[in-house]
Fold each of these.
Amino acid sequence: MNLVRIMRHLSSGQWLLRRVFPTATLTAIEQTIQQSEMNHSGEICIAVEGTLNTLALIKNQTARERAIEVFSQLRVWDTEQNNGVLIYLLLADRDVEIIVDRGIHARISNAEWKNICHSMESAFSQRQFEAGFIQGIHAISQLLETHFPYDPKKDKNELTNKPTVL
């Protein structure tokens, strides 16, 4: 049990989430996703969570473990082409995780996803949340454009472009 982490989570909350992600920021992120998905067949989904609940903290749940849960809860895996991507931010830990569906995982290495996560975390450490997400979406889009080009006959928007705030 990490008491420093628990205190950080307990001192954060929905108020911090609303301050860091006002409506204008969420709208800019949503529009960036919408524009990016016109260039590839991938489905990008964003989830932002302020803190973990007390039980998860006591069990020392990692952001990666929580991201996998959220990937399932938001049904990011439930796309026709198995091309869903979840960008998950656990704000209290400033930890970004990218979880991808099996169709994408087979073509793009974990190292590339980690680089994008680190770049986003760097922006977030400078309190550049909107810019960090937009840069991350653009980086993911470049990978998806290479491996999953847009096909107007097959592609449809299967997941919401609006960021989910948990």
Note: The CA atoms of residues 23 and 29 lie 10 Å apart.
Amino acid sequence: MNETKKMSKNEIDSLKEKMQPYILKESQPPYTYYQIKCQECTITAYTSGKVVFQGQDLSWLKKEEKPLRQIFPQAGSDEVGTGDYFGPVVVAGCILNSENQAFLSKYPIQDSKQLSDLDTKKLANIIKENSKYSICICSSLKYNQVHEKHNMVDIKCLLHNQVYINLMHKGYSLPDFIVIDQFTPEKSYYRYLKDEKEVIQGIHFETKAENKYLSVACASILARNAFLEVWEQMEKKYQFSFHKGAGPQVDQCARNFVRQFGQDELKNVCKLHFKNTQKI
């Protein structure tokens, strides 16, 4: 019997790891990532993404097929604040097992951009009580310091990687399936992290993941809630009403801020490399 599947590089790598205990022989013919021979079958993974299974009985393949979004335990991460002139950049990571998933599925958990601030806060508390999570907050001041050597995409890669490292340092085991709401190609993501001592591998990257995977939706809400908490602290500290986003209203808001607190104070509340700074 022959069965052919189209798979991503992550899925091809995960397949090899899963089959590792059963491999009798491994080789790498031209234009392949690998060819592995097991007692029951031979699997050839081509660089084109085509994976060919050959064996007398491939019925087990049907049992293995399961939509990625239904795989638990799963871990997901998402970031907020990257489009806002004021405020921090926040990345959150969340681990869910099948029990967490069953409970949290009862709630309207989705991409935080589709939720009100009040609903975000309510759902964040529920998620914190029913999941394993970690949140990395990069304040405006820290962001401006780091941005002198790292661009925005680089900073996001560092924060996503760090949030998973933090989960492990908390004593949690990372599941085999980890997904990031894709903001840069997989190769670029790992290139940005090439100088890091510890890099989490085997991640699945997918666009719009916050509306497909419960773990990413939960991470989106946790990150947004942390962003709102920092925002409230900023407004309380300066007794000033900041404006979200990066449009003309933000320019005027920034001008008012500079008039009251001086230009040097901007580094503590905004991302200085945005064009808004030049405008004001």
Note: The first strand starts at residue 2 and ends at 6.
Amino acid sequence: MSTIRGARERARIEVTAAIKDEARKQLAEEGAPKLSLRAVARELGMVSSALYRYFPSRDDLLTALIVDAFDAIGAAAEQAVAERAAGEVPPAERWVAVSCAVREWALAHPHEYALIYGSPVPGYIAPMDTVGPAARVGLVLIDIVRGAFRAGDLTLPPLADELRADAERMAADFAEGVPPESVAALVAAWAQLFGLISFELFGQFNRVVEEREALFRQTAGELARSVGLRDAGTA
């Protein structure tokens, strides 16, 4: 019985992967709003009722693709920081390396990036299942700053009085062990990093910036300094 059960589980994994792959092709060709379970089933030679056993609705399939994308970009960030051991590579250099890894993943997977950081899909409400995966890149950046603070290698950035309560709340919510001053700067830096990637990926830099990688690296270093990391270098 265990052999039969194992075969069924492997088959389910393979079919699920095939469904996701076909759905990603649809994202590239038609965009997320036009994702259709019936079209996916047709391309795979499945009847719709069979596909519904894997994904009961379009939103369930979208959620699976979103989680996969967040996990993939998060894994890229985590690998970049793991390859540069704390204590051997300055925190600012680790920050730049993570930022560049995220950009490289986005350029290699533009349609998946657009799914998670582009325009919201009409009618789709992301469930809580997406929250943990969505936080992975941010948690890597937070951990770099936390480590620098513990090592006494963090310069606290300025913090407006009217932002202090909000910054203290954010520190308690998702950045324990990081000073509120750096937490507020982290949120701003996180938004600017992804804004820069989105500008490049969605064409706003066309006929404006030619050396986009150089601009990104320089900006990532500046953002490292903005959160209090010293001597920002390059990856």
Note: The domain at 1-56 is CATH 1.10.10 (Arc Repressor Mutant, subunit A).
